[in-house]
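Standup notes
- DV: blocked on the single-chain target, sequence here:
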Amino acid sequence: MRHRMNVYFPPELVKQIADLADRKKLSRSAIVEAAVASFLSPDGADRREAAFARRLDRLSRQVQRLERNLGIGIETLALVVRFWLTITPPLPPDAQTSAQVKGRQRYEGFVEALGRRLQKGQSLLREIPEDIDSHGPLTADTPESEPSDQPGRSEER
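- DV (later): unblocked, structure below
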């Protein structure tokens, strides 16, 4: 046996219910009954919780990937600076002007090369295996990161 219940809805909601009922070829009462049953169903809360859990898991993985990529970027920059400071001798005052000009030229070349790599979709992060953490972190104190292990460098200064 069914009981009658009078409820009041805003006109926009009534229109949405009527449109859905017409599309599904169901009565308005059936649409409202299904909506209320879904709202009151204990499974509804479980489904919402599962959806939130999936979203949080996805966000957690994205944050972990960002942390990994940021760590790689910071370590790469630190290694380059350390290497550069280790192998670059101080310049005499009379050679600094020409060194600054040469430095600007090299920097422009670097920016152009970076732009080409980015346009091609190339990325250092894609070249680094995802399982790098399983080998243990490399620190600036480990032999693998010493400047002497770095590839050769142009003698042009």
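- Follow-up: The chain has a mean pLDDT of 82.
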